Input
Amino acid sequence: MASTPETKAPESESFEEAPGFANTIASVISPVNILLSAIISFLLFKIYCKFVKSSTDTVVLELPKLRKDMTVAELRHYDGNQPDGRVLVAVNGWIFDVTRGRRFYGPGGPYAAFGGKDASRGLATFSVTSSDKEYDDLSDLNSMEMESVKEWEAQFREKYDLVGRLLKPGEEPTTYSDEETEDTDSPASTPADKKRE
Ligand code: HEM
Output
């Protein structure tokens, strides 16, 4: 008949403890903490990206812009092995400064075979090879392959700086003034144009 408060007490204690624990958990995963964690993660990610970017782009920022038409032989010097590390690649009769992509085209990169070379044929045939021919007029490529060359050219124009034209044997280089902007609208009969004619 007598009540037994001693036996009830532990029950009520454990009942009260649960919300306390839940509160602690709730306070740890509160929206504020989640937001702070997200901000910290984002900042750490930005720092990481900056670090990766600066380690690959340093050379690019230091190099003066190059504007010059070149022969295949001249182009060969720009394979990334010279002291300034500049890398040039020709696509469809145009030379691009791909130094910012030197992790692809520079020494040891997966597409190093294209560095300092005319990559048109390799890109058209999906093969990471280049020839040491004097000038490749691509005349034996079929229309699909030429279409692919033009698509690659468009991608390079978007991503990289134009340096100049790849000169055919006997062709004279254009003299570019310092102020001259990239004349990318008037390609002087590239191999792809020749194929269309
Ligand atoms: C299994 C085969 C291949 C894989 C898995 C592969 C993978 C890739 C990846 C992931 C990228 C983008 C890299 C980035 O933007 O960070 C890339 C870019 C590229 N790939 Fe490949 N690739 C393959 C074969 C080839 C072949 C055969 C060619 C030659 C025609 C080629 C030429 C290129 C070029 C020119 C780029 C653009 C690099 C730039 O942005 O300047 N790839 N490849």
User: Anything to note?
Assistant: The helical segments are 5-28, 31-62, 72-75, 102-105, 120-124, 143-159, 191-196. The pocket of protoporphyrin IX containing FE is lined by residues 101, 104, 111, 122-123, 126-128, 159 (CB under 6 Å).
